[in-house]
Amino acid sequence: MKPRCAVLDDFQSVATTVVDWSPVAADVDVVTFADHPATREELAARLADFEIVVTLRERVPFPAELFDALPRLRLLVASGMRNSVIDFAAAERRGVTVCGTASSSAPPVELTWALLLGLARGIVPEANALRTGGPWQSTLGADLYGRRLGLLGLGRIGGRVARVAAAFGMDVAAWSRNLTEERAREAGAVRAASKEELLASSDFVSVHLALSERTRGLVGAAELALMRPTAYLVNTSRAAIVDQDALLAALHAGTIAGAGVDVFDAEPLPAGHPMRTAPRLLATPHLGYVSRANYETYYGQAVEDIRAYLDGRPVRRLG
After folding, report:
1. pTM
2. Is residue 208 annotated as part of the catalytic site, yes or no?
3. Lower Cβ count inside 10 Å, N or C end of the chain?
4. CATH numbers and ranges of domains, the chain
5. Is 267 labeled as catalytic in the residue annotation?
């Protein structure tokens, strides 16, 4: 009997059509799932008969308890080459090989600007008003030229966001714990600033940090209170970096002009979640990595990972 491969969270039902799975088709029975299990117990029951699992980004945590509940599991493929929700020690104890794939920084950079521009020019309310017979011009757009963009994080993604900002004629400041003036200058016309100065002086603040114990809750009520009432916050990085309750409070109180958010503390976002109805919020369902080119890379290299594992020569191992 062929080993079974589960492809999780294939919400668009495209995992087996955007790339060619024929290199493993004769040796593996591939099953895709377009829904997201509500509980870990439901996930464990679903995956009980699978030897191979393909998971997207950090959407599904794989703690020790889940590995213990999946004795048949032998290969876990995660998109990207870094994953903070997989217990690699537990995988090793259970004899599970964990492999990754490449991941492009271009899609999240582009979505960051889609959110920022959408907020600045009121694209959603204006488009909705146009389609529903609402007022002709109801918002006053926020300018980008000559305004300051503050970047929390100036790595691979933050650096590319900074270069786009320069094309718009924006002043760019950046902060991270280890950022130096020299490193900031290497990213272009970027000035290193303290976190407090950046939050207080920026017209737009965009988050581009990796999630760690040092960055979890980095932007809370005190940090949001530093922002101008005309300023916008964009988070396409990780939900836990921004205190969601504090952000909701700021949006309801109007202490910031608005926020663009692509990441949430629960995904998919439950129907009654307050982020679905918060004012001054432009929200998207974690689209940062969702592009055809990225999916071609993710699933194409997932097929390569599976083929290499079956041949006894695993590639792109994580952990």
Report:
1. 0.93
2. no
3. N
4. 4-103+291-310 (3.40.50.720), 106-283 (3.40.50.720)
5. yes
